[in-house]
Amino acid sequence: MARLKWFQAGLCSLALAVALGAFGAHGLESWVRPERLDTWQVGVRYHAWISLALMLMAVWPGVIARGALWCLAIGIGVFAGSLYLLVVLDIPMFGAITPIGGVLMMLGLGWAAISASGPT
């Protein structure tokens, strides 16, 4: 049951990344400077990749530590979320928060690699 919830969370997160990517490509152009659009796309790219990783880990036939999944999910929110806020609100302080999300994503991926077991 928990695997299904993580898979669904990954799908919803991926859908959000697609929507935010489209918004960045078509809705932000007149609101923000061009370099801010690049920042937005970095957030979308990592948001999408880590969402796919969550989905993959949810269907992994063995065991992945639940803490690794939480690190990835929170990492998406902190990393991509801080970049989205940086672009929309134009408050550079949000850029200082972004590395925390990156560390959480790296921690989650490493933890998953260490904890992954084969089919049970």
Describe this structure in words.
The protein has 120 residues and is mainly alpha-helical. It has one domain (2-115). The protein contains four helices and no strands. α1 runs antiparallel to α2 and α3 (66-89) runs antiparallel to α4. It is elongated and about 50 Å long. The chain starts with a helix and ends in a 5-residue tail after the last helix. The mean pLDDT is 95.
List the keywords.
4 helices; 120 residues; mainly alpha
Spans with pLDDT under 50 lasting ≥5 residues? none
Q: Tell how many strands the DSSP assignment holds.
A: 0
Largest sheet: none
The figure for the number of domains is 1
Order of helices and strands: HHHH
Share of residues in strands: under 5%
Helix proportion of residues, in percent? over 70%
| Tally of DSSP helical segments | 4
- Helix/strand class: mainly alpha
Shape: elongated
Q: Rg to the nearest angstrom?
A: 15 Å
N- and C-termini, Cα separation: 16 Å
**Mean pLDDT over the full residue set:** 95
